[in-house]
Amino acid sequence: MLKVGITGGIGSGKTTVCAIFATLGVPIYYADDRAKELMVSDEHLIQSIQGLLGEQAYNADNTLNRSFIAQQVFKDKNLLQQLNAIVHPAVFKDKQIWYETHHTKKYTLYETAILFESGSYKMLDKIITVFAPQEERIARTMKRDNLSREEVLSRMDKQIAEEEKMAKSDFIIYNDHSQPLIHQVLTIHQQLISL
Asked: Does the pLDDT value for residue 96 go beyond 90?
């Protein structure tokens, strides 16, 4: 089974592209979603996060206080690195179990915004980057997450440049209206299943 990573900057359209791959029967591990699930279900992880960020990291109903966490880590790069150092090992372990359940598939997708930043790309066979122009990404993210332009730019600042992601990738999907997404996904899908 090929382990394929899919990434792209915030607001690039990874979710839309993954939805197309999913219709082709490709299993997709959504790292950010699983991390959020583990952060509220794994007792060791919960204690570690509270140790780092305090009790305010969780709401009274034991859900993540996402706005509080975002305010803390997006203004302090060191704190973000510490949080990632707590969460990434739990996600890695969870991902390994997930891979075992899909070992008969020709390939799987591992989706995360921080594929290169986390070092996860080193454990993958192929990389796909979804590219969209910065202004389009800013507008999408502002609308989707109800954030200010400054907040979006601050989050973008924590990710490596799009050009660097593209240079390190095996495939690039252009989500810039230059060519249909479905055609691009089908082309990559055919290449991956023929490997």
From this structure: yes
